[in-house]
Amino acid sequence: MGTVLSGTWRVVLTAAHGVRLEPVELHLRAHVRAQMRPLWSRAVAFPPLLGREAVVAAARREILAARPVEFHAPCGYGKTTLLRYLASGAVWAPSVYVRVGSAPLDDVLQMVVDRLYSCPEPVKATRAECEAIIRGCRTLVVLDDVPPGSGIPNEAAAALPGCRLVIGSTRPVLTGLGGSRMLHGLPPDAALDLYARSLGRGIGADEATDVRRLLAALEGRPLHVKQAAALVRAGEFTASQLAEEAAAAGPEVLDRLSLRRLDGVKRRALTILTLFAGALLPAALVSGIGDIAFVLQYLDELHRDGLAEHSDDRFGIPVCQKESYQQQLLGQIDYAGAVRGLADWLADPTGPHALEALEAALGLLGFASERAQFEVVVRLIRLVEPVLFVWGRWNQWRDVLGQGIETARRAGDASAEALFAHQKGTLAYCENRLEEARDLLQRAEELRSRLGDQVGAELSRGHLALARAASGTPSPDPDGQPRQHRRSTKGRAFLVALLTAAGAVALVTAVKGAASDDPTVHPSVTVPPISSISTPTDPTAPTPPKDPTGPTETEPPVGGGTPSAKGSPAALSFPNTSTAGASVPLRFRLTSTGTAALTVAEAQLSGAAPQDFEITTDDCSGERLDSGTQCAIEVAFRPTVTGLREAALKIPDNSPDDVRTVALSGTGTATALPDLKPVITPNYGDGIDISIPTMEFRVENHGDGVATETTTTVTITKPGDDTVLQSQTTEEIQPDESQEIKVDTSGCVPVTTCEYTMVANVDKAIQESNETNNTMTRPPDATKPPISVAPPDPDRRPDPDPID
Question: Using an 8 Å Cβ cutoff, are 359 and 278 in contact?
Fold first, then answer.
């Protein structure tokens, strides 16, 4: 799946059993690093910033003076837009933009290097190597979304002298260095210009006063200015009404008003962006996960309405809006669809969009972990591992693996726990954390042996032997007695010193000449190959174990045996599955039964409808199975249409049978959807105190699917244009059933003098078969006589007039 050079090892990531270590000579690593090529000459187009001329000029002065500068502001002030503009090369080149989030400094430095250079083979640079590269380029490093209290800005400033540093955060984090500036809203004229552009028309003289009052209440925040224009453009509010709302409840009230007006499709698109908060997603991924046709149109509208970010044909939500949006949008989540979309996007860990996919997956991973979705967490960790590995995010990789071990243990998934323990133990060995490496690799070896995974157990056992030898820990010999490995610590120290020296020479040579006092110059890098360096050997060091999953050095002798295999079952028959979901994966096992090792090629789906099935787990493809060992492939049924769907799982190998074929079949069923309809029924009291009138509201489910927990909001507009909002939550509503709620309407006497608007499913988003009938409005009816609130005749209570 991928290889990375780290120290004296080539670390190879396999699909089934995890990473394996292959020794590599130092001169090869230095030679690869010397062939890095710069990427910063690529132009990044960015439109001029409206109303930010003074802020950009101040930032330019600090950058040219080589002083760190920080911009901090709450959500909605346009901080990220400003920082992306500064990182576009408009002020200094080379420039890089990095979203920090929870990443530690070592991974942040690796991200900066990845944006500065390309390398013919991935190399995990040490922190010292990263610092040497970045310093040599005299780079402008823009770090956005730095969490409050983080020490990364000060650490980065100390590690990168000579580089320019710009920080973005919600609160000040740069202490004792440079300048910290609070980013304010747009100047009045710029805010008015943005409002008019977002509105799509000019501002009339009769509304100019109200608009300026609105913009002042919004404090010139670009995000909320665009939201306000969208609400006025839709005809739902006037500028005067929004000014009163913002003055009373703050600019954030526009977030709630903007989300409330979204229809089903746009709400679904925004829900997906919220699920992957912090990542910018391509439209195709949003379309695939949400099953949304013409998705680009809806995403553009969300951006125009101030609800989504848009950069380089990617869409996302402002990170600072994550919690607010999640509370209002994320009800029932289609985890399977989200993971399926990410799996396609992450198929190539070295692809051009792998890092964007990684940020999306990490966002979903955190969300699923908070909700104890153990299977989803394990699946996501398997997906993000190769990207974290290949791109050198080894600190995040270590944290994710730790999370995976704990989650797999809680889920009772011993196979996943063994894999993650092997990965984290090998990583600990590469980073010279030997005690941790021994504990983890021993746990992995024990679990794999217990599960009958002989190949995986042997791989973990080999790495465990390396960790024990490096630390001088006794290893058990065949009869179970401890045996002391003698390891020359002087030889190991000499090896590390030589590696550091060789790496430093290669790195400094690679970046020499890249530095320039003129920020507009884009130097190229031309480095002669590093001459071969003899690798010292330690005569007391153990020979690295041969990985049984790796290629053989020689062909087996003629007549040395015949590979063969048997698989079970011969067919996988899936239960009836809705087109809106996926079945539980079914497992096919392949066992090597011959007298020679079985080599398995890549498994593939074919037949009539391969698109309706998905390989969710593949421990067979590319593996070499000794006789008596087995592997497994799991397949899920994801029907795209109703009716019988059939396909075939084909698994080629080197046995005489050549290709093993497993029949796949399942029947897709129509999606059962709820269909909510609100009903307003007047009532004259609760039967106890007739002077406290109430209104009865009923939520009916006319669909054929269950409606999950739903929030029903009732808006009561009293005479004088005052508005009262009351929300109640209904529980699960079965098809053809309903639930009733009562709302106090004592402020409306008689009740016919008020307007009532009922909206079901405002905050708890669910899928409906009809998105147009979940809102009912009762207009005032002046023709009806007022309803008396006098005590009723004890013998007869009049029936109330119906309200449409």
Answer: yes
pLDDT, tens digit, 9 for 90 and up, residues 332-362: 556 666 777 777 777 777 776 677 777 777 8
The predicted pLDDT at position 531 comes to 30
Alpha helix (H) ranges present in 330-413?
335-345, 354-370, 374-390, 394-411
Q: Most confidently modeled of 10-14, 325-329, 531-535?
A: 10-14
In this structure, the strands spanning 314-316 and 309-311 are antiparallel
Angle (nearest 5°) at CA 163 between 160 and 169: 85
Listing DSSP states for 710-756 in one string gives: EEEEEEEEETTTEEEEEEEEE--B-TT-EEEEEEE-TTSSSGGGSEE
Those residues whose C-beta lies under 8 Å from the C-beta of residue 587, and which sit 6 or more positions away, are 632, 633, 634
Q: What is the distance between the alpha carbons of residues 489 and 475, in angstroms, rounded to a whole number?
A: 17
Q: Residues 252, 257, 263, CA angle at the centre, nearest 5°?
A: 140
Helix (H, G, I), strand (E, B) or coil at 702: coil
Distance CA 691, CA 744 (A): 11
Are residues 741 and 759 in contact, defined by beta-carbon separation less than 8 angstroms?
no
pLDDT tens column, 191-229:
999 999 888 888 888 889 999 999 999 989 988 999 899
Are the CB atoms for 563 and 599 separated by under 8 Å? yes
Tens of pLDDT along 276-318? 766 777 787 777 777 777 788 888 888 888 888 787 677 877 7
Q: How far apart are CA 711 and CA 699, in angstroms?
A: 10
Residues 41 and 525: their CA atoms lie apart, in Å, by 12
Q: Residue 412: count other Cβ atoms within 10 Å of its Cβ.
A: 9
Task: Please give the sequence-ordered ranges of beta strands (E in DSSP) within 581-733, or none if there are none.
Answer: 586-592, 598-599, 604-606, 613-618, 624-625, 630-637, 643-652, 659-669, 676-683, 694-701, 710-718, 722-730
Neighbours of 442 (CB within 10 A): 17
User: Is pLDDT of 771 > 80?
Assistant: no
Which residues, at least 6 apart from 564, have a Cβ–Cβ distance to it below 8 Å?
592, 593, 594, 598, 655, 656, 657
How does DSSP assign 287-341, residue by residue?
A: HHHHT-TTHHHHHHHHHHTTSSEEETTEEE--GGGHHHHHHHH-SS--HHHHHHH
SS3 readout for 54-117: HHHHHHHHHHHCCCCEEEECCCCCCHHHHHHHHHHHHCCCCEEEEECCCCCHHHHHHHHHHHHE
Q: Which residues contact 700 (CB under 8 A, 6 or more apart)?
A: 676, 677, 678, 679, 733, 737, 738
Question: According to DSSP H, which parts of 619-688 are helical?
Answer: none
**pLDDT for 314:** 77
Q: How far apart are CA 657 and CA 563, in angstroms?
A: 10
| Residue count of the chain | 804
Cα distance between residue 338 and residue 288, in whole Å = 9
Across the range 706-720, mean pLDDT stands at 76
CA distance 622 to 602: 6
pLDDT above 90 (res 387): no
Q: How far apart are CA 117 and CA 119, in angstroms?
A: 7
pLDDT digits (tens, 9 = 90+) for 620-638: 888 888 888 999 999 999 8
Residues 6+ apart with CB under 8 A from 406: none
pLDDT tens-digit map of 24-61: 765 454 555 556 667 655 555 667 788 888 899 889 98
3 state SS of 471: helix
> Taking 90 as the threshold, does the pLDDT of residue 421 lie above it?
yes
Of the candidates 81, 61, 85, 29, the residue with the CA atom closest to the CA atom of residue 535: 29
Q: State CA 100 to chain mean position distance.
A: 14
Helix (H) or strand (E) holding 140: strand 140-144
Report which residue type is found at 602: E
Q: Which helix (H) or strand (E) holds 458?
A: helix 454-471
